[in-house]
Request: fold
Amino acid sequence: MTRRTLAICVLGLALVEGASFLGWQWPTLGVLFWLALVFLAFAVTLVSPPAGVAIVVAELILGGKGYLFSLPEGSSDISFRLGIFLAVVAGSLPHLIRGKNFWGSQWRFRWVWLLLLGFAVWAAVVGVLRGHGLGAVFNDANAYLFLGLVPAFGLVRTRHALRSVLWVSAAAVFVLALKTALVQGLFTHLPSTELVSLYKWVRDTGVGEVTYITGHLYRVFFQSHVWGIYAFFAGIGLALANVQRRWLWTGVAGAGAYVVVVSLSRSFWLGAGFAAVVGVLGLLGRRSLRSCFAPVALSASAALLIAYVGFLWTLNFPALWGGAGSGGSLVRNRTEVSTESAASSRRELLPAMHTAILQHALTGSGFGTSITYRSLDPRVNVTRDPRGTPYTAQAFELGYHGFAVHGGVPLALALLAAFAWVLWQGVTILRLRTTERPLVAGLWASALALFVLHLTTPYLNHPLGLGMLMLVTTAFALADPRHEHR
Reply:
């Protein structure tokens, strides 16, 4: 893929964002866009399954909860993500049948996917048997339907096809950064009363949320910002692997770092920071890798500088400083863990989750389980009761604890072992002689960050995290020099 093709992809995805806004304002137009784009995804996948996978990845990076477009169905809406899912699955079926190879490049990792599927089935059955209700059980289980795309990712069977998917993901990251900058800049510099339509579009399409902080400062958080971590580490890896396009991929890494910074997500910072520290120790700890430290440091520094300058410029446009406010105020607000609402809510939820885990430690409580605890979160405790207000939660922010609550401790430990095994496969490939080592290292760091941030913000039970894991395992399989002999 050339730079011109990348520019065309960026323009095309930007037009999709514009169509989403128009479709939100005029629902009939939104239905037409939904039908046209889903049919296009089906037709493209019939011709080229890797292109269908690229569409899936682009939608994940841009779509948040998946409602860029909606198709009304009774009292509910069919999300654009579900439409893309059905289109790519259907378009992949003829290729899977003709090839008589269900797993493809995912063969080595099939046990990971079967374990996740088994966990979902077990937790759903237990939830029904415990009387949680089919509706509540389905709400917890439906994200695991995304595992049906594993065979489609398995149809990405060559490194050339993988690179095409990575280029499309790069275009999507650029559009994500532009959309983030636009929303952040408009809310920083214009009265919020003039941005009601923009705010409602961001909320109604499930992309994310815009939260007032102080003064003229707002926090812009999109669920898809988690893909900024992937863009940062994979971009640095590709910058090292492709010297001719080093600065282009460094720009991708910078765009990824920018959205992670703007998200003001402590979980993202924790995951990315931990992965970065481990990566630096790995480079310095092995003699054969020490020569890579300087170019990695150069690309990473350039990417972080892009993120820093972009953040300041967005807040103080058209200058770099002296405008609406300091980014430091936003960062300080998010780092005051002792007083921040979401952090205190997690602390209060933790002992209640421990109790719930111990109630059914072996079998789990199943999907649809709810936990009631007393919360001091001012968004809940409106009466300012010093003991807190009783609050019932069904969605748990503590990801691994959620695995144990739903499926039991044995299954939760099995999932932890499976995720560790994925990382070990990456380490194994890094020890082999392959030209794809920089890319594998970047994706390995992305996977490590994803596994770490799941501690406090659940993504491994959501299409955003599962899709990233599918892309990582596909790259691991294709980067293995032994794959060429199979």
Remarks:
- The chain is about 65% helix and 5% strand.
